[in-house]
Write a structure and sequence with these properties.
Distance between the termini: 49 Å
Structural class: mainly alpha
Number of helices: 13
Number of domains: 3
Order of helices and strands: HHHHHEEHHHHHHHH
Radius of gyration: 21 Å
Helix content: over 70%
Oligomer: single chain
Length: about 300
């Protein structure tokens, strides 16, 4: 990849994250890059092609950095795990907003369903945790390795959520040291009881079925509702917290009734969307709502 192509991808990713994919034109990108449209089309034939290459490059860069950590003979296995946690942390901070915009705007990309793209990204992150844990702890962690992966993944995402809510920064080393400390405190206790989480908790038995990837779109939409509720409760700067909570509760009731396209649903979502801290979650929710609404109409035909 040449420097010009990387510049276009970096600028485009920033524009997509700030303005949204649908509101970013190729003109916006070339203007910021200070290049001609001809130069843009020399590297990318369409906006979709550009988006795909950004996703592929981020994925390739992540795997390359992970491999470098594994091959570094100058650091011990615990430090390798720490570096992997920091690597995932940096990937999530850098790529999650962009990835959510892509999920919102594409059902597939370059002929590949978006759920498969998301599955691949998720697999890469979890696999690096798994690899470093088994290298560090060996056979003694075999029965609880996926429970430990779940613990790491949950803690990292919780730190990111707190950062978004409180608008404050955490140093990667602080996050990493805390996560490692919790692992060291917990791992012996986990070994004393039968495991309740295994690989199937993260992965579908049938990778060709979109619903199986997330258990079901229905489960995922309830998970998104819970995340919206948590954001409202934890964010001290939210205005009209009570009204926002009432609105999301009404949305949940409409979902339970299967009324995905009701006027009440639309009105409550419009109200919730006005709260800036909820915009990403509402965008994800709307995408899921649209799919579930389509599914319901197909069944009723």
């Amino acid at each position: 990849m040449d420097e010009k192509q990387k510049l276009i991808m970096d600028v485009a990713k920033e524009c997509f994250s700030k303005q949204g994919l649908q509101f970013t034109s190729i003109y916006d990108i070339v203007k910021t890059c200070k290049i001609s449209k001809a130069t843009f089309y020399k590297h990318f034939s369409t906006k979709e092609d550009l988006v795909y290459e950004i996703l592929a490059y981020s994925n390739k860069n992540f795997l390359s950095r992970a491999r470098s950590i594994d091959e570094n003979l100058e650091i011990n296995n615990k430090d390798k795990l720490k570096k992997k946690i920091i690597l995932v942390w940096e990937y999530l901070l850098s790529n999650t907003p962009f990835n959510l915009f892509i999920i919102e705007n594409f059902s597939e990309i370059k002929g590949q369903p978006m759920y498969k793209v998301k599955e691949k990204i998720r697999d890469n992150l979890l696999s690096e945790y798994h690899k470093s844990l088994t290298t560090l702890y060996g056979d003694e962690i075999e029965s609880i390795v996926w429970e430990t992966v779940f613990l790491i993944d949950s803690l990292v995402h919780e730190f990111i959520l707190i950062m978004r809510i409180k608008k404050e920064e955490f140093e990667p080393n602080f996050v990493c040291d805390y996560v490692i400390r919790i692992i060291d405190m917990t791992i012996e206790e986990l070994k004393k009881v039968p495991p309740v989480i295994d690989k199937s908790f993260f992965y579908s038995d049938n990778a060709d079925t979109e619903d199986n990837l997330f258990s079901s779109k229905q489960l995922l939409i309830y998970k998104t509702i819970k995340e919206i509720k948590d954001l409202i409760v934890k964010n001290d700067t939210v205005i009209d917290q009570k009204k926002l909570t009432e609105a999301v509760n009404m949305v949940e009731k409409e979902i339970e009734l299967g009324s995905y396209n009701s006027l009440i649903m639309d009105a409550m979502l419009s109200f919730l969307e006005k709260e800036k801290s909820l915009k990403i979650e509402i965008a994800v929710f709307n995408k899921l709502k649209s799919k579930l609404g389509d599914d319901t109409r197909e069944v009723n035909k």
